[in-house]
Amino acid sequence: MAETALHPAATAPAIHRLARRPAAAGHRTAPRPTAPHRVAGHRPAAQRGPRHPRAACADGPAEADGGLAARFALRLVEVLAGARPAGQLARHTTHDGYRQLARLAQDGPLRRAASLPRPRLGRVHTSAPGPGALEVCVRVEAGVRHRMVAFRLERHWRTAQWQCAAVEAR
What we know:
CATH architecture of the domain at 61-169: Roll
Number of strands: 4
Strand content: 15-25%
CATH class of the domain at 61-169: Alpha Beta
Oligomer: single chain
Distance between the termini: 115 Å
Strand order of the largest sheet: 1-2-3-4
Largest sheet: 4 strands, antiparallel
Number of helices: 3
Helix content: 10-25%
Shape: elongated
């Protein structure tokens, strides 16, 4: 067996650690904080909910009045006039509201004869009796007669979507 001799030149190079440079005489470094800096009232990002651009907006009729009441009133009048099936508004109503709507659609207070023009919406009046509720009244011109349709929109407690809770037409 042949023995291999290690030559001193074949040894592994030494690893030198970089030494920290000493701080300048007039310069003091602040110690690194061991815990994150906490500000009163500040929650870490993991505990904070998602940010929504409309979160700071006021809740009430200003948000819903921007067209929601008028759009729903138009669809509601179309159902009462027989131009739209009541089932299309089922997902936008509560159970009681849908029962009232189906009964009114069956009676047809706004149904017209073939010679009469289609019902037209007049001005839409809104009122907010409390947060999460909106009461709407609309005047409907059906030929020479005028009818009134009133309904109540409420925010669903879980989904925060507006739903029709009550309907009345005279």
